[in-house]
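Hypothesis: this fold can be encoded by more than one sequence.
Test: take the structure tokens below, design a sequence, compare later.
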């Protein structure tokens, strides 16, 4: 019965994988952090966390869109030409949206960098990893065991 369950689990893992070959790779924490600093979410994509990477990327893009749409350069009072941060005529909701969006974008950037570095370290320090592979019609499960001596 145990061998049947193990065989069934192995078959499910192999069928769920794509037909391309997959290798367990070493991921550089510095590269992951730098990628997330340049474009939040890119480090997560690099460390194979697609859903988290796309979520961070979308959140950052949305927040930056609001930052550009409601920035201080849009606070100019038409009659005087003065910028509204010195002008009491700017609606407070505009300022709240801009400051809030800037805070969200900054928070996402910091979180993405810290998380990408941690994800790369976690990926590299896995004690036991099972990686499904498929090459030339042959499918299997590659097992690696890492130890610290």
């Amino acid at each position: 019965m145990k061998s049947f369950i193990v065989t069934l689990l192995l078959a499910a893992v192999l069928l769920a994988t794509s037909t391309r070959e997959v290798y367990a790779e070493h991921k550089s924490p510095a590269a992951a952090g730098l990628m997330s600093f340049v474009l939040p979410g890119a480090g997560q994509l690099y460390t194979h966390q697609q859903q988290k990477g796309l979520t961070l990327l979308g959140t950052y893009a949305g927040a930056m869109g609001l930052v550009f749409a409601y920035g201080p350069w849009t606070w100019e009072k038409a009659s005087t030409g003065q910028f509204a941060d010195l002008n009491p005529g700017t609606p407070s909701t505009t300022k709240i949206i801009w400051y809030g969006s800037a805070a969200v974008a900054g928070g996402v950037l910091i979180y993405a960098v810290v998380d990408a570095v941690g994800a790369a370290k976690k990926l590299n320090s896995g004690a036991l990893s099972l990686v499904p592979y498929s090459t030339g019609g042959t499918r299997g499960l590659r097992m690696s065991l890492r130890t610290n001596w």
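Residues 131 and 145 are 11 Å apart (CA to CA). Strands lie at 128-135, 138-145.
Hypothesis status: open.
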